[in-house]
Amino acid sequence: MAEPTIDVRVSPLTQLHERMRAATVTGARGVALTEWPFVTMVNLRVDPDAEAADRIGKTLGAPLPRECGRTTASGPHTIAWLGPDEWLVVSQAESALVTAELKGALGSDPGSVVDVSANRTTLELSGPAARQVLEKGCPLDLHPRVFGPGRAVSTTVGPIAVLLWQVDDAPTYRLLPRSSFADYLARWLLDAMSEYRGPEVP
Question: Based on the domain organization, do 125 and 184 belong to the same domain?
Fold first, then answer.
């Protein structure tokens, strides 16, 4: 008789969870860093003008975004633009289900659907000082007049390539690095946060 399968996944940042909790700063200069492990992520390639793109949009409940930096969302799914014919579907639904539904919508049309959930993890940086922390090492203009909720772009934070996604006006940002670089990025962010634990300057 076969032994039952046991989920033994370990997130790339398990060793830093306590340190991240301890680094949380509250108040007007507040900032917090957390990990969202095991989020479903599916890479999608398809001609945006093909019928398959419309079928995929209907399957996800939202159209594929057509412009750099844009996202669309419906229910558990958020779709981020990565290139003229490439998107990342980030979902709270089970990865096998999302992948199967997208493959069904793509059908025999040219394109690809690849589960990349194990390829990245998600760091969430939030609080009044979150933008200032990111500005220490991100080349983007993150001012609200340029970058706001619903925007997601490929960039760098420190020396690490990430997909940077602003979720809300708090502001809350989600950073999606490759899993192998997540430890370095988290330590970089913790160091960048450290000055906000000191007293406010009048």
Answer: yes
* Segments in 3-110 forming alpha helices (H): 17-22, 51-60, 95-106
CA-to-CA dists, residue 150 to 31, 89, 131, 146, 172, angstroms: 20, 14, 15, 12, 11
| In a shared domain, residues 50 and 108 | yes
Whether 3 is in a domain gets the answer no
Residue 181 Cα to chain centre, angstroms? 14
pTM of the model: 0.90
Helix (H) or strand (E) holding 180: helix 179-193
Q: Looking at the structure, do residues 129 and 31 belong to the same domain, yes or no?
A: yes
Residue pLDDT, tens place only, 60-111: 999 999 999 999 999 999 999 999 999 999 999 999 999 999 999 999 999 9
Question: Is 128:31 a contact under the CB 8 Å cutoff?
Answer: yes
Nearest CA among 168, 164, 171, 165 for reference residue 132: 171
For tokens 């069904």, what's the residue?
104
pLDDT of residue 127: 97
| Residues 32 and 68 reside in one and the same domain | no
Domain membership of residue 143 as a residue range = 14-37+121-194
